[in-house]
Amino acid sequence: MKKAVVILSGGLDSTTCMGYAKEAGYELYPITFNYGQRHKIELNNARAVAEHYGVSDRFRLVELGFLRDFGGSALTDDSIDVPKVGTDPVPDEAGEIPVTYVPGRNLLFLSIATSFAETVGAEAIYIGVNALDYSGYPDCRPEFIAKVEEVIAIATKIGVEGKPISIETPLISLTKADIVKEGMRMDVPYHLTTSCYNGEPEACGECDSCRLRLKGFAEAGMKDPIPYK
């Protein structure tokens, strides 16, 4: 059976990727990263999603605490506040990269996921990047994914042997509403997910991630199943 590594955060997008990978017939190998994020609650969500798909035995949690030591992001540095409604414009309107961007995060995630994929014999890596309804992060763009895929092809044994690992980005050109609709079609367990940057049992509804998620559900004409303050 063909195998795929899924970079799983426990959020809406990555969990939708799990649904896509399963629908495509892949044996799922989820990998989650503890990078010192203030919303560590998502790690429990990722485990719950892996359990839902019956792949808890293949679930991997990788420690990347040094990203918190580096700081430089509202998600890893307690001295930087997570922006809320009224203080942080929607990124594509502001034309700026928000302070919730974590330097080098997806580059690290994909590098480590590549190692995992090559080890287990996976031919694909799924990642929930999106370049339409997203937070304006540079490591969510198609050109970034294309370049990393090129590097993987020349930097791995499997790539040199002519069987490169592909990076699958099924959400990259979808709106948040389309992502929600597709997830609901595939019975993705959104009730097990979280998107809030503040990492509390109830989502704040005010941070950029919550706002994008709520916008997606509203435009899809559906109710978000997770609790909000």
UniProtKB/TrEMBL annotation:
<dbReference type="GO" id="GO:0008270">
    <property type="term" value="F:zinc ion binding"/>
</dbReference>
<keyword id="KW-0436">Ligase</keyword>
<feature type="binding site">
    <location>
        <position position="204"/>
    </location>
    <ligand>
        <name>Zn(2+)</name>
    </ligand>
</feature>
<dbReference type="GO" id="GO:0005524">
    <property type="term" value="F:ATP binding"/>
</dbReference>
<dbReference type="InterPro" id="IPR018317">
    <property type="entry name" value="QueC"/>
</dbReference>
<feature type="binding site">
    <location>
        <position position="207"/>
    </location>
    <ligand>
        <name>Zn(2+)</name>
    </ligand>
</feature>
<dbReference type="Pfam" id="PF06508">
    <property type="entry name" value="QueC"/>
</dbReference>
<comment type="subunit">
    <text>Homodimer.</text>
</comment>
<dbReference type="GO" id="GO:0016879">
    <property type="term" value="F:ligase activity, forming carbon-nitrogen bonds"/>
</dbReference>
<protein>
    <recommendedName>
        <fullName>7-cyano-7-deazaguanine synthase</fullName>
        <ecNumber>6.3.4.20</ecNumber>
    </recommendedName>
</protein>
<feature type="binding site">
    <location>
        <position position="210"/>
    </location>
    <ligand>
        <name>Zn(2+)</name>
    </ligand>
</feature>
<comment type="function">
    <text>Catalyzes the ATP-dependent conversion of 7-carboxy-7-deazaguanine (CDG) to 7-cyano-7-deazaguanine (preQ(0)).</text>
</comment>
<keyword id="KW-0067">ATP-binding</keyword>
<comment type="similarity">
    <text>Belongs to the QueC family.</text>
</comment>
<dbReference type="InterPro" id="IPR014729">
    <property type="entry name" value="Rossmann-like_a/b/a_fold"/>
</dbReference>
<feature type="binding site">
    <location>
        <begin position="8"/>
        <end position="18"/>
    </location>
    <ligand>
        <name>ATP</name>
    </ligand>
</feature>
<keyword id="KW-0862">Zinc</keyword>
<feature type="binding site">
    <location>
        <position position="196"/>
    </location>
    <ligand>
        <name>Zn(2+)</name>
    </ligand>
</feature>
<keyword id="KW-0671">Queuosine biosynthesis</keyword>
<dbReference type="GO" id="GO:0008616">
    <property type="term" value="P:tRNA queuosine(34) biosynthetic process"/>
</dbReference>
<keyword id="KW-0479">Metal-binding</keyword>
<comment type="pathway">
    <text>Purine metabolism; 7-cyano-7-deazaguanine biosynthesis.</text>
</comment>
<keyword id="KW-0547">Nucleotide-binding</keyword>
